[in-house]
Design brief:
This protein is α/β, with parallel strands linked by helices. The chain has one domain: 3-Layer(aba) Sandwich (Rossmann fold). An eight-stranded mixed beta sheet has the order 1-2-4-3-5-6-7-8, sandwiched between helices. α5 crosses α7. The longest helix has 16 residues. It is globular.
């Protein structure tokens, strides 16, 4: 593990593979192991750079609120520390919102943009879901029950028909402890501010938009709205998959990401 710094914030990251740089940006309450099922294959083609957002994993737990622009600065600090002047940038969920803002602010640093299970502008549906998740974050002290709730929302119906939620939750907890609830709450607060819909038409780099057709958290219509706002964006829906295609459908996910 290496550490990048943005002011007082330390960001845990690691590098695997050879080839063009690929920056992997996770979402709320996610850490580097979220990529475990796809990263070994991606690392055959890319020099993958994975990091924990502030308030997650081995990165600094913040002491105050912050903005989406601060998370963009964190991402560029990781790129700088990893020696990546330019990179393919892949963002999942909140990470996709960060990736959009990164591409808008520093287009010369983004070779290609891959946006997964993310949005350009939320609606009342997403407000309702995030409000529920914020309530669960504040009022479910038991980590197992809290994570099970997150996985239930994140999993598609196909995944829930084929897998035991208790086993899924235990496996996820085995990857590492959850961040403090106040930290996760700050990430939800930032996610609620994300809105790029009126600006992303200016993106000129290649863009692909990936979503699961059974995503209950960020439904397919938001992925379609995002793609329609970006000229020549490629849409890549993954059938029978929820919010976590890199976990539920790793082979299909890698195929989408690695397509020329």
């Amino acid at each position: 593990m290496s550490v990048a710094r943005n002011g007082t914030i330390e960001l845990a990251y690691d590098v695997a593979g050879d080839g063009p740089n690929l920056l992997l940006i996770p979402g709320v309450a996610s850490t580097r192991p979220i990529w475990n099922l796809v990263r070994p294959v991606l690392a055959r083609r890319f020099r993958t750079i994975a990091f924990d957002l502030r308030d997650s994993g081995e990165s600094t737990i913040a002491s105050a609120a912050y903005a989406l622009t601060d998370l963009v600065a964190d991402a560029t600090a990781v790129m700088d520390a990893a020696g990546a002047d330019r990179a393919h940038v892949l963002g999942h969920s909140l990470g996709g919102a960060i990736a959009q803002e990164l591409a808008l602010a520093f287009p010369g640093r983004v070779e290609e943009l891959t946006l997964v299970s993310t949005w350009a502008r939320g609606d009342l549906y997403t407000k309702n879901v995030v409000t529920l998740l914020q309530s669960l974050t504040a009022n479910t002290p038991d980590d197992f029950s809290f994570l099970a709730a997150l996985l239930y929302v994140g999993a598609g119906t196909t995944t829930l028909r084929d897998n035991d939620l208790t086993i899924m939750t235990a496996a996820a907890l085995a990857l590492g402890s959850l961040a403090p609830r106040a930290a996760i709450a700050r990430q939800w607060d930032v996610a609620k501010t994300a809105d790029t819909l009126d600006r992303i038409a200016s993106l000129a780099m290649p863009v692909r938009v990936i979503w699961g057709t059974e995503d209950k958290l960020i439904p397919p219509w938001l992925g379609a709205q995002l793609a329609q706002a970006i000229p020549a964006a490629r849409t890549m829906p993954i059938e029978g998959c929820g919010h976590l295609p890199m976990v539920a459908a790793p082979e299909r996910f890698v195929h989408c990401v690695a397509q020329a």
